[in-house]
Amino acid sequence: MTKTLFAEFTVKEGSETRVAEMMLELTQLVRQEPGNELFLPYLREEEPRKYFVFEVYRDDAAFQEHITAAYGARFNEELALHIEEPASQLTWLTPLQ
């Protein structure tokens, strides 16, 4: 069964450019993961410092591979310096069937 979630965070004023660069780099890397089916980062139109990232992974194993990738740890460590929350806020989704 696929693992589907969205992550949200708010960028601190002055960090917008750096976080955008980080997200573009992360997006390229995640999309190359064999178990990643979708990775779509967005900025909210009405609040352009708020990110919404929609993610879909093939299964639990693919998600575990994703969260243990070294580049993800580096990204999260630096991201913590640039966002208002302590970390990205994750929301898990279940498809209607």
TrEMBL record:
Recorded GO MF terms: monooxygenase activity
Q: Looking at the keywords, is ATP-binding present?
A: no
Per the record, the domain of life is Bacteria
Q: What name has this protein been given in UniProt? A: Antibiotic biosynthesis monooxygenase
ABM domain ranges (all copies): 3-93
Q: Which UniProt keywords apply?
A: Monooxygenase, Oxidoreductase
Is the Glycoprotein keyword given for this protein? Answer: no
From the UniProt annotation, give the residues forming the signal peptide.
Answer: none
**One Pfam family cited in the UniProt record for this chain:** ABM
